[in-house]
Write a structure and sequence with these properties.
Largest sheet: 5 strands, antiparallel
Number of strands: 13
Strand content: 15-25%
Helix content: 25-40%
Order of helices and strands: HEEEHHEEHEEEEEEEEH
Number of helices: 5
Length: about 250
């Protein structure tokens, strides 16, 4: 009987895993498959490809003005989902954006080392990916900043071609340049995040920058009714198998 229960328990666990019912985990960034990553802290889904505008053929290099970047994300359909957007940022203090002469400690919205979940792309850079900015929190400069981890703005591949991005953990094709953020500072300026320096600040809307599509919530999550039905079916199958086996032993 004990061996029977162990075997069936292992079978139930296998079915749950194969069927996509996720088990508890402490990871902040999870690979949902089909090119999507889910951040359990921010409760947002990121495209795994951080330069999908180029990869998909929408733009020749992925560099776009703010208007072009917004048009791309807002009209994007990926994984069957619409309503994608640019990575967002909101005030660290939850009220107003703070500008300070302290650019380095991460206490102000404009500057380096911002690790607040309110700054989605900065949080991704410093926390999820563990990358480094151009300055330490005390203002001293460091040389291991950016996606290459050596302070280089770009590198050359074996063929001598310029490489401006890299795969970082679960993230693919992260460019070592500036990305547009969703929040406008005014009619002519917008918030940006610089992957090379780890700086969050403001630039003119006419600049040509990269865009990373984000979606609120877990796009690839298994719907609760379906998951509940599957779990119930598994438990029923387990009970029925045990009952049948018990009756067989009784008859014998």
């Amino acid at each position: 009987m004990n061996n029977f229960i162990v075997r069936k328990s292992q079978w139930v666990l296998s079915v749950l895993l194969v069927s996509g019912i996720s088990m508890p985990t402490n990871a902040a960034l999870q690979d949902r498959g089909n090119g999507m990553l889910y951040d359990t802290v921010l409760n947002v889904t990121w495209l795994q490809d951080a330069n999908y505008a180029k990869t998909s053929g929408y733009d020749v290099d992925g560099l776009m003005s703010l208007t072009e970047a917004k048009n791309w994300t807002e009209n994007l359909v990926f994984g069957g989902a619409t309503n994608w957007r640019l990575a967002g940022n909101s005030p660290i203090n939850g009220i107003d954006f703070v500008f300070s002469d302290d650019f380095y400690s991460g206490v102000a919205d404009q500057g380096y080392n911002v690790v607040s979940p309110n700054a989605e792309l900065s949080y991704m850079f410093y926390v999820n990916l563990g990358l480094h900015g151009l300055y330490n929190t005390n203002g001293t400069q460091r040389s291991d900043n950016g996606v290459f981890g050596n302070g280089n703005l770009f590198e050359l591949d074996e063929g001598g071609n310029v490489v401006g991005g890299a795969d970082m953990g679960l993230v693919k094709n992260l460019q070592n340049r500036e990305y547009w953020l969703k929040t406008n500072e005014g009619p002519a300026f917008n918030w940006i995040f610089n992957v090379y320096s780890g700086y969050q600040g403001i630039l003119s809307n006419e600049n040509q920058l990269y865009a990373w599509a984000v979606h609120d919530g877990d796009v690839a999550a298994v719907p609760i009714p379906a998951a509940g039905y599957l779990f119930g079916s598994v438990i029923f199958g387990f009970w029925h198998t045990r009952r049948t086996a018990s009756q067989s032993r009784t008859v014998c």
